[in-house]
Design a protein that fits this description.
The complex is a heterodimer of chains A (80) and B (235). Chain A is α+β, with helices and mostly antiparallel strands. Chain A has one domain: Mth169, Chain: A. Chain A has two helices and three strands; from the N terminus they run E-H-E-H-E. A three-stranded antiparallel beta sheet of chain A has the order 2-1-3, covered by helices on one side. Chain A is elongated. Chain B has 235 residues and is α/β, with parallel strands linked by helices. Chain B has one domain (3-233): Rossmann fold, CATH 3.40.50. Chain B has five helices and eleven strands. In chain B, strands 2-1-3-4-11-10-9-6-7 form a nine-stranded mixed beta sheet, sandwiched between helices. Chain B has a two-stranded antiparallel ribbon with strand order 5-8. Chain B is globular, with a radius of gyration of 16 Å. Classes of the chains: A alpha+beta (80), B alpha/beta (235). The A-B interface holds A 13-15, 17-18, 21, 65-66, 68, 70-71 and B 56-57, 60-61, 64, 92-93, 98-100, 102-107, 145, 147-149, 181.
């Protein structure tokens, strides 16, 4: 069994009002924060032994469901 | 006129749409998301709500339900599809309409009457409005902030796909009249072919005077008129 750690983030060109709210809050707490962007983290366990196949499957499901390519980008790592 | 209203787990405006259409003399049918479209429909409505709890992204999971496979085919073949609120979000998720709907710029859930300017009054959905008419239809959403890239917006403008824009009470298209930060004050868009309409405001809530207005009536009556013409003249 392999596990994929998937992160989905808003594209740079897309405003992130949640991120800006957190950013403002951190700044008002006195931290030297430049920017906060909020994204999603997903762990996907696969019934699959081959890393190559796992990569292919994860790319496909990221594209189909986990991320919306209109507004988001994704990245992932695969581990045992 | 065969009208199907799709009910997903978490839909909550399907009965409002059903009631509105019955008030206007129609007999719509409620269809479960696990069903298929088993007969010829003249109109499919994707109602508002929180399909699948809005998990992952609004509309993201609903688009993969069995009935949507048939709805997508129906829409691609030119069938009339109306997506309201969550229905609009589902239409963008499945690629039938361009762009996406993000969290409102204010981060506030907006539930209030809203002025809209009718930009297209020549569609099956809007032919009983006047071009440029100012109408009041309520919004009720947390994620109605329409975005699209620059090229996409240019295409929407040049193809005249923007149907409704958020406006101020004076009819101005400005920031003050924009409830959610939508690009170009976009409240509703139509497919290039003109048969798929997605809109965030809820026309079904303003069909009977008792619920605060009747500005949503012309939308449903436009669809009825389109259908009657088709029956009578075959166009």
């Amino acid at each position: 069994m392999l596990k994929a750690n998937v992160t989905v983030t808003l594209k740079k060109s897309i405003l992130d009002p949640q991120g800006s709210a957190v950013e403002k809050s951190l700044r008002s707490m006195g931290y030297p924060v430049e920017e906060v962007r909020i994204g999603k983290f997903m762990e996907v366990r696969l019934a699959e032994e081959s890393r190559e196949n796992a990569k292919e499957i994860i790319s496909e499901i990221c594209h189909k469901l986990l991320a919306n390519p209109v507004i988001e980008t994704y990245g992932f790592t695969i581990e045992e | 006129m065969k009208i199907g209203i799709i009910r997903f787990p978490g839909s909550n405006c399907e009965v409002d749409v059903w009631e509105a259409l019955r008030f206007l003399g129609r007999e719509p049918e409620l269809l479960w998301h696990q069903d298929r479209l088993r007969q010829a429909y003249d109109l499919i409505v994707l109602p508002g709500g929180f399909s699948y709890g809005d998990y992952l992204r609004t509309g993201a999971i609903a688009r993969f339900s069995p009935v949507m496979e048939d709805v997508i085919r129906f829409a691609r073949e030119g069938g009339l599809v109306l997506g309201i609120c969550n229905g609009f979000q589902i239409l963008t998720e499945c690629g039938l309409l361009p762009g996406a709907l993000l969290r409102n710029a204010s981060l506030h859930f907006r539930c209030a009457p809203q002025w809209l300017r009718v930009e297209r009054a020549d569609l099956p959905f809007t032919n009983l409005y006047d071009p440029g008419e100012l109408i009041q239809i309520p919004v009720n959403h947390g994620e109605g902030n329409y975005v699209i890239d620059e090229a996409g917006l240019a295409a929407l403008e040049s193809n005249r796909q923007i149907v409704f824009r958020y406006a101020s009470a004076a009819g101005e298209i400005n920031e003050a009249g924009n409830p959610n930060g939508s690009l170009a004050n976009i409240a509703g868009i139509v497919s290039k072919e003109g048969n798929i309409l997605g809109m965030m405001p809820h026309p079904e809530r303003v069909v009977e005077k008792i619920t605060g207005g009747i500005d949503g009536q012309p939308l449903f009556l436009s669809l009825v008129k389109t259908w009657e013409r088709r029956i009578r003249y075959g166009t």
